Amino acid sequence: MNGTYIEMALALLLLFGALWYANRERIKAFFEKEPEREAGREQQPSLVLSTETVPLENKKESLPQWTEEGRTTKKKTQKPHIYTKLIPESENIDLDCFTYFKGMRLLVVEDNLINQKIVQNVLKHSGIIIDIANNGKEALEYLFTEHRDYDLILMDISMPVLDGIETTKMIRRVHQLDHIPIVTFTAFSLGPEIEAMFKAGANAYLTKPLNVNQLYTVFTLFVGNVNRGLSLEKMLEIQGLDVVAGLEHAEENKALYLERLDTFVHKYAQSAKLLPQWIEQKRYERVTHECKELLSDLTEIGAFDMKALVHEILMQFAYKNEHLLGRYTLLYEAKMQALIETIKVYLDKEMHNDSPTQRSKI
Q1: Highest mean pLDDT among 69-73, 124-128, 146-150, 276-280
Q2: Helix (H) or strand (E) holding 105
Q3: What is the pLDDT of residue 234?
Q4: Candidates 3.30.930.10, 3.30.1380.10, 3.40.50.2300, 1.10.8.50; correct CATH number of 45-230?
Q5: What is the value of pTM for the model shown?
Q6: 50-70 pLDDT, tens digit each
Q7: Are 98 and 200 in contact (CB under 8 A)?
Q8: What's the DSSP call for residue 152?
Q9: Residue 181 in contact with residue 198, Cβ under 8 Å?
């Protein structure tokens, strides 16, 4: 029996020896070329920014150094909010409303042609500049090789070549890009995929199919008015300041209307910060008092979009849904700040356009 095992072992050794001898040149060539293949991996276009590398703390790998060559915008260092809750829907939104973000630069990282077309069709008349990347590798080439700057990135999770999670991680390792919000755009509404995106550095998520009202909220939260060529009249219209209605409430007395706008700015200058704080502190009596006053004042100045949001907040108290108020904090802050800034721009324009005699009447 032992003799049989020995004979079998010898036969196997002879077989492996023969195979090695027959393929020795191929094996030798494989090991000689392995270092070249490793070097080739390090030189993938999606990872190369310059010839220098920056070591990552507690990691063996390194990332290429970001350079400012070819960029036309100033550096931005402020990190955007992280919004882990379901994005609320903005009220009374149609496609024309997206012209408020005219001049915004958007990168859509999405491999599905239908989803690409949906985003492009929704925003085609908005004046938003859109780049499409079919996978993470193409997105990194836009950012690192072509040095394009973006106001926001919509990032799919499941993509060929390089998925959204790994792409987000690579972007977040370059601190000069920290200012760009990354919003996950996915069919997953719950689960480990979205959690992994937040850990990788995402700021919020949208679910497919695309909800236009939620997309508008995302742009409001993370971008706001980028002020690239939008007329004052269009900005007022889109932001929800109906000057015609406001003048009607003032019985066509423009001086009175401007005075009301000025009073509103001073009265609610801190409201964008205070009301969300009161919600977090559960000072609900203060919240309801502020909202009720706002309803009247917003009607007088013709700010109906903001009025709809304030009314929705009040309804949460009527329906005993105080636990849902947290979803309005960032949205209220963003919209109130935008409204205050819009009123200031309008007041400034009117004061400069009026004659000295007209200004003396205000």
Answers
A1: 276-280
A2: strand 105-109
A3: 60
A4: 3.40.50.2300
A5: 0.54
A6: 323 333 333 333 344 444 333
A7: no
A8: E
A9: no
